Predict the structure.
Amino acid sequence: MNDPKIFYRELDALLAKIRIEERGEDFLPSILHELAEKFESRLNIGNGRLYVLQEEVFVLQYPLDIPPGAFAHKLPIGSDVVQLAYRNRSYIYDDWSLNSQFVSAPQDRLVLHAAIWVHGPEHQWLLIFDLKPGWMREEINLFLNSVRTSLNYRLFSDAIGVRIEQAVQIQKSLLPQQDPVVNGYEIAGFSQPADAVGGDFFDYFDLEDGTFGVTIGDVSGHGLPAALLMRDVVIGLRMGLTMELRTVNTVKKLNKVILRSTYATNYVSLFLAEIEANGHLFFVNAGHPGPLLIKGKSVKHLNATGTTLGFLQEIDLHRDYARLEHGAVLVLYSDGIVERQNEEGEMFETERLVEWIIAHQKLDARSLLKAAFELVYEYGGGTSWEDDATMVIIKRK
């Protein structure tokens, strides 16, 4: 099993490359080369090849230097393997009888295969991979679906020049327009998308008896697909909490919403907390960077209490507790903050954020938030944000 944090980071880097790589005739072959370089050994896949649809047959486009007889150079659109890829958009061929269709000559030992159906407005492709011993279904499915979604979005957006101003306005309407006023607390939040729209979000909830809720989350990927899934998540949270399902049940139900979403890029990290007037804080953390609870030089990380959403049908998730004392600062953030890089490629890192908050914790919440964003922005050389960045500051007065 791969280290989830490293795996998600490398996958996000690949999806970012798909999003920003200059596109020419060799765009898909270059992405396939990147897949092989970064993920063959990690996912136990190999022999990636690209087929393009010509009339009624998928013809091998890349690589062209495959030895004769090694792999099929043509796959008819009516064949079983192509139809399975078409119906499912990505598919793992774990039926041994199907895998002979991927080779053009008998072999002593067949291997299993996986495929992605990629389509733009004018052309359609198949990406085929061998599955080597040690491959894991959950990781392969996550990989295939994330790459497929990102490639399809990129191809369509390039071809038709997608206008997303309406999506921008919708997303802005979903994020809080002003900081809430809660007796005994100072609260400030802000989200900076890397594109016109993004996958980061935060929100506040007015519960009962002086209790309020706060959430922060990060949808994998960037741009419109992430923004559309972000919309589903925010609306799902609001509906769940309105129905008084509260934290654990709400997040578990939300996981099922994400799995069914048409726009899913497959995973969402989420932190959701209920904070009482007396400082009692109950939270669930579904794979999100642990918020920081700081008072003086004391630091508590509100780490994960369950797995990332959108990955498994059933998730193990529990509620945890922390105490927000008078004068304490709670800092919620997305990985776009701590993973921003300077000119030397060094990340900002959580430790640097902790040290800075400790040194400046006397500031009010809004000033602390503004200064923190300025610090991280300048750390990256004042260049554009490569990842969505979000932060929420809560101080108990």
Summary: Residues 137-160 form the longest helix (24 residues). The mean pLDDT is 87. The first strand starts at residue 45 and ends at 54. The radius of gyration is 23 Å.
